[in-house]
Specification:
CATH architecture of the largest domain in chain B: Up-down Bundle
Order of helices and strands of chain A: HHHH
Shape of chain A: flat
Helix content of chain A: over 70%
Helix content of chain B: 55-70%
Largest sheet of chain A: none
Number of domains of chain A: 2
Distance between the termini of chain B: 58 Å
CATH class of the largest domain in chain B: Mainly Alpha
Oligomer: heterodimer
Number of helices of chain A: 4
Radius of gyration of chain A: 23 Å
Strand content of chain A: under 5%
Structural class of chain B: alpha+beta
Order of helices and strands of chain B: HHHHEEHHEEEEHEHHH
Structural class of chain A: mainly alpha
CATH superfamily of the largest domain in chain B: Cytochrome c oxidase, subunit III, four-helix bundle
Largest interface: A-B, 75 and 82 residues
Shape of chain B: elongated
Distance between the termini of chain A: 73 Å
Number of domains of chain B: 2
Number of strands of chain A: 0
Chain lengths: 134, 276
């Protein structure tokens, strides 16, 4: 018996092909996203180089927690563009997109929550157990 | 209800007649692999976050990584920004290779894939330099003074190797020099220079910092290296015309997914090791 799954497989691969006109549009989008990713990276580096974590007296910069949050938001934006545009996940079927993204996002948020909560406990109760005296 | 059951032909539903995702198996399972790999990196970075969150001190990215090849120190984050840019550009050339592949443009695929390989090789080389610099550390290392650990920014020796002047940097912009610095300095005290798996001068109280740096950037670097090898193999197949015969260049798309993933991981490594 002929294996029809292989035939289907080949069909899906062929379906991805497109003509020159369509390609032009896609290339335009690629260069747009490239410019955006580069811009975000430049902004990140400038903030990293010029905003200090400490103030003139060596104390904490009260602005720093917000800068940190800003870095994380910019990173997630970059990641979203890479996954949805460069990896074309945005162009896949909706059910496939969520099979990939849903479980991962759920699990990673849980993991981060658990680890940071536990780390806060270690620091508060055990006083930063990694501290060693030479 | 009965009508519904009759409408589904079991022969069609279970006979492999189409994927519910309308995607080929190769691509689907590359995605599944990437999810599992992303969980590995997610676990590593979260463990790093754990260690960092519970520690009292942590090195500041722009003070730890401020060197440029041939130029010396004083260029905060510039080198790693360059590395990041190279990787992003190689991701762009990859996506352009995939686009050319969809038009069955063999010449275009060859050109863009070759550039991707070159960009990847550049990145791995840059990481090698970064490691070299991280392992060797600052020029004079750090020393344990009566005020705690301090980086020796500058040291002047007089006759009989006696220290006549010293500049001590305690981080966060606090610096001591002259008589004040000499009064806290002890030439016989413990010193540290560079980083290894047991100690590191960047944050002497937290030796795990260097372990995390070596493990996570090393694991990522190995992914980049593997990606360069995969891309090279596919490039050779493209040139040989293997995919022309097949009628589609889906293999380029698959290694492309892996390559973008490597870039994606770096975006997070960059943020959590260098920026934050």
């Amino acid at each position: 018996m002929e294996r029809d799954d292989l035939i289907k497989n080949h069909e899906y691969s062929l379906l991805a092909n497109h003509d020159e006109e369509h390609g032009k549009e896609i290339r335009k989008k690629i260069w747009k996203v490239t410019a955006l990713l580069t811009l975000i990276t430049v902004v990140e580096v400038l903030i990293g180089a010029f905003i200090k974590q400490y103030d003139a007296n060596g104390g904490d910069n009260s602005l720093w927690p917000y800068v940190k949050l800003g870095f994380i938001i910019l990173t997630v934006i970059k990641a979203a563009y890479i996954v949805l545009i460069f990896m074309h996940l945005g162009d896949e079927r909706k059910n496939f997109k969520w099979v990939i993204l849903g479980p991962y996002i759920l699990f990673i948020i849980y993991l981060i929550f658990i680890c940071l909560t536990e780390a806060s406990y270690w620091n508060a109760v055990l006083g930063g157990v990694n501290s060693i005296t030479p | 209800m009965a009508g519904h059951v009759e409408n589904i032909s079991s022969e069609k539903a279970w006979g492999g007649d189409g994927s519910p995702f309308r995607i080929s198996y190769g691509k689907q399972w590359m995605w599944m692999f990437l999810v599992s790999d992303a969980l590995t990196f997610g676990g590593l970075l979260t463990a790093y976050g754990f260690a960092r969150h519970q520690a009292d001190a942590w090195p500041i990215g722009e003070e730890t990584f401020n060197a440029m090849p041939f130029l010396g120190n004083g260029y905060p984050l510039l080198y790693v920004a360059l590395m990041t840019f190279i990787l992003i550009v190689s991701s762009v050339t990859m996506v352009l290779a995939v686009e050319a592949a969809h038009r069955l443009d063999k010449k275009g695929v060859t050109k863009w894939l070759l550039l991707t390989v070159v960009g990847g090789a550049f990145f791995v080389g840059s990481q090698g330099w970064e490691w070299y610099h991280f392992i060797h550390g600052t020029h004079n290392g750090i020393t344990l003074t009566s005020e705690g650990w301090a980086t020796i920014s500058d040291i002047v020796y007089g006759a009989n190797n006696v220290v006549t002047d010293i500049t001590l940097s305690f981080g966060r912009g606090v610096e001591l020099t002259g008589a004040e610095a000499l009064s806290v300095y002890d030439p016989n005290a413990a010193t540290m220079q560079g980083a290894n798996l047991i100690e590191n001068e960047y944050v002497p109280m937290v030796p795990q910092y260097a372990d995390f740096f070596f493990f996570i950037t090393g694991f990522h670097g190995f992914h980049v290296f593997s990606g360069v090898v995969f891309n090279l193999i596919i490039l050779i197949n493209v040139v040989r015309g293997v995919y022309d015969k097949r009628g589609h260049y889906e293999m380029v798309e698959k290694v492309g997914l892996y390559w973008h993933f490597v870039d994606l991981v770096w975006v997070f490594v960059f943020t959590f090791f260098y920026l934050v």
